[in-house]
Amino acid sequence: MTWFNFILNRAEPVAQNIFLTVGDLQIPVAVIRNHRARRYLLRLRPDGSVRLTLPRRGSVIEGRRFAERNAEWLGRQLERLPAHPLRPKQWLVGTEILFRGKPVKIEAGVNGESGLIRFGGESVKANGHGSDLRPAIERHLWRLAAKELPPRVLEYATLLQLPVRQISVRNQRSRWGSCSRRETISLNWRLIQTPAFVRDYILIHEIMHLREMNHSSQFWREVERACPDYETAERWLKQHSSLLK
Ligand SMILES: [Zn+2]
Question: How far is the CA of 215 from the centre of ligand 1 (A)?
Fold first, then answer.
């Protein structure tokens, strides 16, 4: 195979997602050009994502018409898919995610063409080439958390009269927060997904470690004094441990 053929044979994404109306759902569709394809192809993958393949001389406009003609077929295929798992790997339009403690549905924006996604009063540009909206939404949640969590920590630190030197909001896989002896508090951005009382409990818990670098009964007494319903928060975290992998 020559280099030229190799380039031509490659399947490549040609545009951002298009959105296809299927029943009352707006389904994001990843558009791919494949120079070896003889015709337009619409495919539902087992994970629920949808791909539209354009042939060599095909256009996105023609592809969209083709997809629209096959929307009913796609709807039937979608119904046949096994129910979304509780914690779907992919986030698609229609997927429910936790935001500020409440389940909210991911929805396509009014001008879905430009790749705008909405959930819980937020809107996010989802310009990726795939149909999984998770990376774009997670980035947005992380940004929100980085903006909202540090001032909240400083408020509590002042209230509890414990100096915090540095606060970072990170992407930890296994913990909600941590506190180092250098007076640095690290928080998980997923705290933006928990209810306010749970988020506040974690902040107080980590700040309290500035006084007690352990989980002694003395530590828990201090936590309880500052956060009387901390056990309810701990229960919520156990029930939602799947938020952390
Ligand atoms: Zn702790």
Answer: 6
